[in-house]
Amino acid sequence: MLRWLWLSAAVLVLDQATKLAAERWIAPRAPIEVLPFLNLVLTYNTGAAFSFLADAGGWQRWLFLALALGVSAGLTLWLRRLRPCERLTAGGIALVVGGALGNAVDRIA
């Protein structure tokens, strides 16, 4: 089922492209109104979800990088072992791997 890794690669490319576009076209902390109840705002989060460990001093970057790579490796092994009839599971795993690798790239950059 490793043929699903094309989806992971596509997610990774789209993830990085949208982040590059946001950095290029949105000024930091300057809201852009999309709808009356929805604004786009460029901010950065050095931690995890909800800024968890964002002020921990820098070591968390390497922890989250290791976690992203470890999760990606584990999920790729799981993907490899799936049967052909488990397409929905394979698609979901491939999407998560692409997102995790996108986060890993962010930690390196």
Explain this structure.
The structure is a single chain. The chain has 109 residues and is mainly alpha-helical. It has one domain. The chain has helices at residues 5-25, 59-81, 87-108; strands at residues 32-35, 38-40. Strands 1-2 form a two-stranded antiparallel sheet. Strand 1 (32-35) and strand 2 (38-40) form a beta hairpin. Helix 1 crosses helix 3. The longest helix is centred in the middle third of the chain and has 23 residues, at 59-81. The mean pLDDT is 89.
**Radius of gyration, in angstroms, nearest whole number:** 16 Å
The succession of helices and strands, N to C, reads HEEHH
Shape: globular
Low-pLDDT runs: none
Structural category is mainly alpha
Task: Determine the N-to-C terminus distance.
Answer: 30 Å
Q: Into how many domains do the coordinates divide?
A: 1
